[in-house]
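Journal club side-thread
Mid-discussion, someone asked how the predicted structure for our own chain would compare to the paper's figures. Pasting it here so we can look after the session.
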Amino acid sequence: MADESICVGPPPTNKSYLNMEAILDAVSSTAAQAVHPGYGFLSENTEFARRLTEMGATFIGPNSKAIRSMGDKLESKKIAIAAKVSTIPGYDGVIKDEDHCVKISNEIGYPVMIKASAGGGGKGMRIAWNDKEAKTGFRLSSQEAASSFGDDRLLVEKFVDNPRHIEMQILGDKHGNYVYLNERECSIQRRNQKVIEEAPSTFVDPEMRVRMGEEAVALARAVGYDSAGTVEFLVDSKKNFYFLEMNTRLQVEHPITEAITGLDLVQQMVRVAYGHPLNFQQNQVGIRGWALESRVYAEDAFKNFGLPSVGRLIAYKEPLHIPNVRCDSGVKEGSEISIYYDSMICKLVTYGETRQHVLNAMVAALDSYVIKGVTHNISLLRDIMTENRFVTGDITTKYLQEIYPDGFKGATLNESNNRKLGAIAAVVKTKGMFQSRNIFNEKRIPLMPMKEDKLYLSVKSGENVYHVFVKWNRKNGEYYVVFKDGPTVTIKDNFSLADTVIQPEVDGEIITFQLLSKDMGGNIVVQFQGTQFTVKVLDERTASYLTYMKEKPKQDTSKIIFAPMPGMIKSITAKVGDTVVEGQEVCVIEAMKMQNSLCFGVTGKIKTLHVQQGATVEDEQLLAELE
């Protein structure tokens, strides 16, 4: 962490991290000799780089000309074509308005990609399949671009359906030396933002790697690039690749390149900024093993693969005890996740000799990662790590939609694992009951000891109800969970219910889980295989009473709009008394620099609007109702 910190303004980005004057004042007041701009905000702003130079401070990044040329997607595409880099068909001018966007989209042919001319990182990007989506995409993308980059210009190009997203890391100095540092596979995405990256790619062969690397270097050479940068490509099933954009900054996923090359990219950027030539050549760049990065977000993966969550980290522990694990984060226990910034908590990286070793390490790391206080996406990341198509490397940018066509619902347990989960919950219940009979250092309160170390329990795990009895073998330190309709599960008594991460031996196999909560109603919530499961464990007599309990009726939500996440109401496009059709936009909510259009699930007349434009709302807050 930094030795000194300077407040640059209030939370809204346009008043702090995008406030150039405030940043420059901080540089001046600390007499900083150089500035590394990080991943976003002003990292690709030519004016910021120029003014730093005027102040006598070094900008640790490429020169202003390269930033300007590559930061503008319109100009960068023209330069790429001149440098004989493969490009995607599209319109090379600025889109003026919604109607112009529709006209150009029809000329190119749907589907099209509408995206911000400035910036990157998935902000200000929409895919349109028809005229209606083109109009909506233009409006939302231009607003996101203005909010994130201060530039609302958009371009439209042909959308390459079902591609891979593969990028090439390059490095150049001020002496005309250039190298490429191999590729990164970034195809696992949601809303055009990366979720999982790996290096190298399972799809790229040595010959293709050379071709991609040489085109990336040709582009860098064409603009006199002199720092670390990334050239992104879309790749089709026949291994044809097309230039997408160049990020003139350090990428979020740079640690996996460091892991497979042994290079410190930030150190290389500092050396180049100081004026040193590169201290290695292309033939010295190899591939050392494999590396994988999971982006751990404060997001609800069950909502559109990840809508932001806010709150305070009441418990936080990174899995750094596991070998070959790296955690790049900026939070600690007690940190607050707010609506103003990107929802990323940590870049969780594993590395090793083979891809399978790396996958195994990532599974162990995700199982042992403790995050409480906010909703997180570990369940989705963990499920992907063992999903067959991902394990075999058969992925595209449509991976999430194809594997989870109805949205992510959490890990699906087979019968064996479901019984193990039920057995674990039964032992948790039993340990709790046995412990409640022990009062240490207190002799005045006589308690009747339990007649036997055996409990008859009803265990509901998912849709399955198991009838078991649990026996505690004090001598061997084991619990035996005997299923009336199946085999006995043996669990070693080698853990405490107070452990943040619990790793008992279950039938000879070490299983990792986290006990999140348990209550008097028998509800035991555990995180198992990344997903939170609620298992209801009751004694047989209490469970028999449940047959007399009525189920709570489900609420009809088609006539109600709830906030899908915490955020700010950016706009309201309807009023009370208006008749709206199914799918018609009613309002737009903005959170963490992303905008989402909200609508009703049926046609009807608006009865009530509970919010106003500019209002800050909580997750699941009621926004609007139909009659």
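Post-session note: Residues 415-436 form the longest helix (22 residues).
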